[in-house]
Design brief:
Blueprint (H helix, E strand, L loop, with lengths): L1 H19 L1 H8 L12 E3 L12 E3 L5 E3 L7 E7 L4 H16 L5 E7 L4 H11 L5 E3 L4 H6 L10 E5 L5 E6 L4 H13 L1
Parallel strand pairs: 4-5, 5-6
Antiparallel strand pairs: 1-8, 2-3, 4-7, 7-8
Length: 190
């Protein structure tokens, strides 16, 4: 009897903790979402409001260390994602197409994978033909560095950095191909 009461108490305590975690709450509801969805909102930042250039350093899945200090002079697109995120999967073909479209211009793309093992991330990239590299950000270093500039707040989130390395635009949620293209063009034109 005492053991049963202890088990019930543990379930009550754990379910109370889960209700505070949005992902756990989604799992308990059975929504199968398992991500914090963005609302698709787009924010473009005026040049005077952009602040300092982004300072990030991280390791790509191929083991290469990359620093934002090497990015000035190019527009950079950062896409925060993970493999089980449905909107990430939906936007992947558009990101591939935009990467190919802007390949001959001064635009570079990086994924920032916030959750997956190397094997899962590489399987996603193979499946969708992702040609650009991704940061292994399971430790949250890139995400944390971005919070002082523009917090991503949802997965997926796509950021466009201007030629000086400052955040010029943010899309919370699924990135519309036409909108992202216009944001890249705007940053290139500066």
């Amino acid at each position: 009897m005492c053991l049963a009461a202890s088990a019930i108490a543990a379930v009550v305590v754990l379910s109370g903790c889960a209700a505070q975690d949005p992902l756990a709450q989604q799992a308990a509801e059975g929504s199968n979402k398992n991500y914090i969805a963005g609302d698709g909102s787009v924010t473009e930042y005026a040049v005077a409001e952009r602040g300092e250039p982004v300072q990030i350093e991280g390791t790509l899945y191929n083991g290469e260390t990359v620093s934002s200090s090497a990015w000035p002079g190019e527009v950079t697109v950062l896409n925060f994602w993970y493999a089980a995120c449905a909107p990430c999967r939906e936007e992947a073909p558009d990101l591939v197409a935009l990467h190919e479209e802007y390949q001959s211009e001064d635009v570079q793309f990086y994924g920032v994978n916030i959750r997956d093992s190397k094997e899962n991330a590489e399987a996603f990239e193979r499946n969708f033909g992702i040609p650009y590299p991704s940061f292994n950000d399971s430790d949250g270093g890139v995400l944390l560095a971005m919070t002082s500039h523009v917090p991503p707040q949802a997965v997926p989130t796509t950021l466009v950095l201007d030629k000086e390395g400052r955040v010029s635009a943010r899309i919370l949620g699924l990135a519309d191909k036409g909108t992202l293209s216009a944001l890249i063009d705007s940053a290139l034109a500066e």
